[in-house]
Specification:
By secondary structure, the chain is mainly alpha-helical. About 35% of the residues lie in helices and about 5% in strands. It has 6 helices and 2 strands. The two termini are about 20 Å apart.
Length: about 160
């Protein structure tokens, strides 16, 4: 977003990820795709990357890195974030709307938000579960699983 408009959307300045078919990966398999990227993003966030020479700084410059936007369709967004899908009992990934209790609740001003810290706890419990059955039960109850993006301090 710091680039001038004439450069910002050029292919050489875009990071695009496509996971080839014919089938999409399972939730837990996405970690293998994201971990190396997140590891580099953490370095860029915590200390930045030193560029030895830039057009504006012949002596070099340190740049910081962050994910500012993730554009997905809804099923992919849920997987990227580690949230329950549209088939979950939770109507919203961020609100405490449970299907049976709030299917017709339209007064969104009164919707209570889920606590991001509690969501992180549930995601960590999912990550640390010892068996697939335990993970399945946690996911069914809380509609959240581990995403490598949760390692980023600003991700919620």
């Amino acid at each position: 977003l710091n680039l001038p408009d004439n450069l910002r959307y050029k292919p050489e300045h875009t990071y695009l990820t496509i996971i080839p078919g014919p089938h999409e990966p399972e939730l837990d398999d996405l970690a293998h795709y994201f971990k190396p990227i997140v590891d580099q993003l953490l370095v860029g966030w915590e200390r930045g990357f030193h560029l030895s020479h830039t057009a504006c700084s012949p002596e070099g410059n340190t740049v910081e890195v962050a994910v500012v936007l993730s554009v997905n369709d809804l099923p992919a967004a849920c997987k990227v974030d580690g949230s329950g899908s549209i088939k979950s009992n939770w109507l919203c990934t961020r609100c405490k709307l449970y299907r049976r209790d709030s299917a017709y609740c339209t007064d969104f001003e009164n919707w209570e938000l889920k606590d991001p810290i509690v969501l992180l706890w549930h995601a960590e419990a999912y990550r640390d579960a010892q068996t697939g059955k335990e993970r399945e039960a946690l996911f069914k109850q809380y509609a959240v699983c581990w995403s490598e993006l949760r390692c980023l301090p600003y991700w919620d």
